[in-house]
Design a protein that fits this description.
The complex is a heterodimer of chains A (331) and B (336). With 331 residues, chain A is α+β, with helices and mostly antiparallel strands. Chain A is 51% helix and 13% strand. Chain A is built from 12 helices and 8 strands. An 8-stranded mixed sheet of chain A has the order 1-7-6-5-2-3-4-8, sandwiched between helices. In chain A, a hairpin with a 3-residue loop joins β6 and β7. In chain A, α2 crosses α3 and α9 runs antiparallel to α10. The longest helix of chain A has 24 residues. The radius of gyration of chain A is 25 Å and the shape is elongated. By secondary structure, chain B is of the alpha+beta class. Chain B is 51% helix and 12% strand. An 8-stranded mixed sheet of chain B has the order 1-7-6-5-2-3-4-8, sandwiched between helices. In chain B, α6 packs parallel to α8 and α10 packs antiparallel against α12. Chain B is elongated and about 75 Å long. In chain B, 43% of the residues are buried. Classes of the chains: A alpha+beta (331), B alpha+beta (336). Chains A and B meet through α1, α4, β1, α9 and β6 of A and α1, α4, α5, β1 and α9 of B. β1 of chain A pairs antiparallel with β1 of chain B.
Chain lengths: 331, 336
């Protein structure tokens, strides 16, 4: 039998099966055909039908693309996590993040590289007031949830489940060693968003606006402390109680795009961001290896801000604080 | 007809429907399929009508050619999306010429549709504009080789090292863009990364002289002036006069001060959509998944609502927007 898609399907099935299981016997059971018919399919004398292909996919938890090796030419599969316009959908989105972080945390070794365009999403959950603002902005502007179009902004998220999910996500992120690559623009989008709300009259008073700038400032101060300690922790916790698990770099030349890569002792997982909140997860190891090379290349050329390089770190964070102050003065 | 025959017929119909959507308008579906599968046009017709079942080899060939996911057609992908990525199978290696040629091919493909529009959510100055002048293109080429792809070359930047062939490919790429209607979401910070790149290589002594640095900045200013004129006219400027198509594309420009751009590109081509998703700073993953494309289109339309239109209208805002960027570049020249 020459190299046909049918032959490749059976080669793949053989690879997946335990050594003591006969492929022909398995096919006989799965496809409800005689042993002779199974052998004819394996030899390529009888073509597999579409329904048989579907059955094989269901039995092996593989997709037709995987079984047929479609996408070998630089085609990569991505699993999307969409946040749709409803509170329930946002919960599923957060549950998905918590689920993925839990899985990553369960490996013996895991490291996350986060090439951040904004503040990495988990840091917003450090401060309930900024978390509430982000939540309102996402629902109102990004997802256009009708329920949030006329809903006034409140300084706290009232849905307990959302608060709990955000805290779990930050807990898990704090427990996983991470490398963050920042730009000096990383706080800009939050400043733009607060400014957008100011101009579209979402705040009752300048005092409310000031509270949000204070919240952003506090988060940035906390991240600075984490960078200094080389570890991640909740505000109020003693950084000395935690293992070193935080590296921060300043990439001053190329603007980032929120690409994330998790490197575990078994596999790599790449996560691409789009449309502000949504992301696509990829388990294709060739693709992930390529992303790793690119991110490591960025790290090599970036300035390390965590632990050492006090002067650079202070300058970097001062520039962000000054920018927040600039907006605050315009109240 | 048995259930299996009905499934096969349905699968084939769905497959050919997607092929038809993605096929440039001037190409015939039957002839394309006949050529691809090396069969007669009669046989191609029988497959398209579902009278003759296709074998797996044929289905695979068609899916690969048109970037179609068999998982999606058969409803077995579990919502997964298929992307084509320009990542190198040998990590660390990158063929810039191949990258540009491939991007040019995509632009030619968009042009083959009577209805087409390009949406660009800019994080930086869109790639096409780097070919506005040879000096800027030469610098960007140097930057990509050195910074992004980790070239260990210690030689200083020289305009003469930029291959003419590369610029010619880039100019054609730019021309194809200039003759295509576009909607772009800019931010006053979209020029920051280019300024920083010039600054970085100036500070690290990779320019031969201050005059060279000033020349690159001057070319950046000229580019901004041209984009401002395009924006005022609501029409792009044609790059090459000896091409078959010299009709300038419409140009809509928004000042997006709400959501930081990610260099995502959406091509609306007939009823199909192609999304180019930027990752790892320079690379793109591309999908033709229609549902995903429609989602991105809604996102772009939403972004337009939250942004300020500065092309054709809003002269005050447009002038202020470009003046801010021009001042930032001029300040760099003055400090040399």
């Amino acid at each position: 039998m020459s190299d046909t898609p049918q032959k490749r399907i059976f080669d793949k099935l053989r690879e997946m099966m335990p050594a003591d299981v006969s492929l022909a016997d398995q096919l006989t059971e799965w496809l409800h055909v005689s042993s002779d018919s199974s052998y004819r399919r394996i030899r390529g004398e009888t073509p597999l039908t579409v329904n048989e292909l579907v059955t094989l996919c269901e039995r092996t938890a593989m997709t037709p693309n995987q079984l047929l090796n479609l996408g070998a030419e630089n085609q990569v599969m991505f699993e999307p996590n969409f946040a749709k316009a409803s509170v329930q959908s946002f919960k599923s989105y957060l549950q998905n993040i918590v689920g993925q972080l839990t899985t990553l945390h369960s490996y013996k070794e895991t490291k996350v590289i986060y090439c951040s365009k904004d503040l990495p999403i988990f840091h917003f959950f450090l401060h309930p007031e900024l978390a509430a603002f982000k939540y309102h902005f996402w629902m109102h502007v990004v997802m256009q949830d009708p329920a949030y179009q006329d809903r006034p902004f409140e300084f706290q998220v009232t849905d307990k489940e959302i608060i709990q999910l955000q805290e779990s996500a930050l807990d898990l992120y704090n427990a996983i060693p991470s490398i963050e690559i920042w730009n000096s623009e990383s706080a800009n989008s939050t400043l733009f968003q607060i400014d957008f709300y100011k101009h579209s009259r979402h705040f009752d008073s300048a005092k409310q606006l000031g509270r949000l700038y204070d919240a952003l400032d506090e988060i940035v101060y906390h991240i600075e402390k984490q960078a200094e300690a080389g570890t991640k922790f909740w505000p109020g916790q003693n950084p000395g109680l935690h293992q070193q698990n935080y590296e921060m770099y300043y990439n001053q030349v190329a603007l980032s795009d929120n690409t994330m890569l998790a490197v575990t002792n078994q596999m790599k997982v790449a996560v691409l961001n789009y449309g502000v909140l949504n992301y696509l997860t990829c388990y294709d190891q060739a693709f992930c290896a390529s992303v790793e090379v690119d991110l490591n290349n960025l790290i090599r050329r970036a300035t390390k801000l965590s632990e050492e390089n006090v002067r650079k770190r202070v300058m970097f964070f001062n520039a962000i604080h000054e920018k927040i102050n600039f907006y605050r003065k315009m109240l | 007809m048995s259930n299996e025959e009905m499934d096969m017929e349905h699968l084939q119909q769905e497959l050919f429907r997607l092929v038809k959507e993605r096929l440039p308008a001037h190409l015939s579906l039957v002839e394309t399929i006949a050529g691809l599968l090396s069969i007669s046009t009669d046989s191609a017709y029988r497959r398209i009508r579902g009278e003759k079942p296709m074998d797996l080899m044929e289905a695979k060939r068609i899916c690969n050619q048109f970037n179609i996911s068999l998982d999606a057609i058969m409803g077995l992908g579990g919502g997964r999306l298929i992307f084509t990525s320009n990542h190198s199978n040998t990590p660390g290696e990158f063929d810039y010429k191949e990258y540009l040629l491939s991007a040019t091919k995509s632009m030619q493909y968009f042009h083959s549709f009577p209805e087409k529009k390009l949406y660009y959510e800019c994080k930086d100055i869109p790639l096409f504009f780097h070919f506005h002048s040879k000096e800027l293109a030469a610098f960007k080429y140097f930057f990509w080789q050195k910074y992004l792809f980790g070239s260990r070359e210690t030689k200083k930047f020289s305009f003469d090292d930029y291959p003419d062939e590369m610029f010619e490919i880039g100019r054609r790429f730019y021309h194809l863009y200039a003759t295509l209607p576009s909607v772009e979401f800019w931010n006053a910070e979209s020029i920051n990364s280019t300024i920083r790149q010039i600054d970085f290589y100036s500070d690290t002594g990779f320019f031969k002289s201050k005059d060279d640095v000033a020349l690159v900045y001057t070319k950046l200013k000229e580019l901004l002036s041209d984009i401002e004129q395009m924006s005022a006219a609501g029409m792009k400027k044609v790059v090459l006069q000896d091409e078959a198509n010299v009709e300038p594309g419409r140009y809509e420009m928004f000042n997006n001060e709400v959501m930081l751009g990610g260099n995502t590109i959406l091509a609306v081509i007939g009823v199909s959509r192609m999304v180019f998703l930027n990752h790892s700073v320079f690379h793109y993953a591309v999908t033709t998944d229609l549902a995903f494309g429609m989602y991105i289109q809604r996102y772009m339309e939403n972004l337009a609502r939250a942004s300020t239109l500065i092309s054709k209208v809003s002269e005050v805002e447009r002038t202020a927007f470009f003046s801010l960027m021009q001042k930032a570049v001029q300040a760099k020249i003055d400090r040399l």
